[in-house]
Amino acid sequence: MKIRELQAALEELIFVGQAHKMGVIDELYKKPDTSHGLAERMGYNYRNTFILLEALVEMNYLLKDRDLYTVDDEIFKRLVDKNNKEYEGDFWQFLLYLINPWKTLPYVLKHGKPDESSYTNFSIDDFIRGMDSPWKKQIAPEVVDICLKYCKNALSVADIGGAPGTMARAFVERGLDTIIYDLPESMEVMKEELSSIQGITIETGDATESLPTGPYDIAFLGNLCHGQSPEDNAKIIKMCQQNLNDGGIIAIFDNIRDESFRGAALALHMITQSPKGNIYSKDEYYQWLENAGFKDLTVEQLSDKRWQIIIGYK
Q1: Strand-strand pairing, 63-65 and 68-70
Q2: What is the chain's percent helix, strand, coil content, to nearest 5?
Q3: What is the CB neighbour count within 10 angstroms for residue 302?
Q4: What is the predicted pLDDT for the residue at 261?
Q5: What DSSP state is assigned to residue 66?
Q6: pTM to 2 decimals?
Q7: What letter does residue 132 receive in the DSSP assignment?
């Protein structure tokens, strides 16, 4: 990325993200207004409100007709309507948070662990809801198709680490009884809305200690392994094998080192966030799977080249 493109991307993330967080875009959707009118409504400085709104127009996040600022349908879907499948506001807020831990890379390299002081503004709601993002909703049917390609008669799945609910919804739509299993604090964010979906069962716990009691046909690990140590991944995979039906599969949806586009960059993200996380290679996954007793291992590349799925049979 050229330096001016990098500057523009950072400006957009930070200034639009802050405007979204402050409710500026929501307010202008509810009632289009002048900069002076919005400043009065929100208790802001008149001059600086005008400067912000003009920049949001320039970046195509607001429309302006004479002195009136409005929000168009695309931005409404992306940053206002939380029930829209294109809504990405929570992920914007998670990205804003990530700037601080990413800046602690010198500390991480020196001390070999994340700088916990950078976690101050972490929001579990922004994180969990942010992971239920448009890109994930788009790819979820493809992920389920691959799982059912290898386990055609599957009737049940345990979505381990699945608190956002994106994959669980896709499994249920294909007729599978689905257990969503995650940490209590993660599950609390989406528990109420996910519990109302027929076919979904909520269970809580720590996957490094225990898993939902089987048997089930598919053990699905979605974006889980890159946050764990090698020892914990080996343990989780072994417990999956113990809880699967004979002939069932494990499906690991994650970034594989040397095969994932931007996988190495994600590993940098992990070392600033997780004391033990990393992006692992196919050989590492295969070793854990083979040691746990899985057979006929294979890797499927998704249409989004960031992501792969590893399949293994019990």
Answers
A1: antiparallel
A2: 50, 20, 30
A3: 15
A4: 86
A5: T
A6: 0.92
A7: S
For residues 303 and 139, give the distance between their C-alpha atoms in angstroms, rounded to a whole number: 8
Q: CA of 277: how far to CAs of 81, 147, 177, 224, 267, in Å?
A: 33, 25, 30, 10, 8
Give me the amino acid identity at 13: L
Average pLDDT, the chain: 96
Whether the predicted pLDDT of 139 surpasses 90:
yes
- Cis amide leading into 215 (omega within 30): yes
Other C-beta atoms closer than 10 Å to the C-beta of 202 total: 20
DSSP, res 33: B
The answer, yes or no, to whether residue 142 has pLDDT greater than 90, is yes
**Strand pairing report for 216-222 and 244-254:** parallel
pLDDT, residue 93, reads 96
The rounded distance, in Å, linking the Cα atoms of 163 and 185 is 10
Residues 6+ apart with CB under 8 A from 43: none
Strand ranges inside the chain, DSSP E:
63-65, 68-70, 156-160, 177-182, 200-204, 216-222, 244-254, 256-257, 280-281, 295-301, 308-313
- At residue 146, what are phi and psi to the nearest 5 degrees? -65, -40
pLDDT of 262 over the 90 cut: no
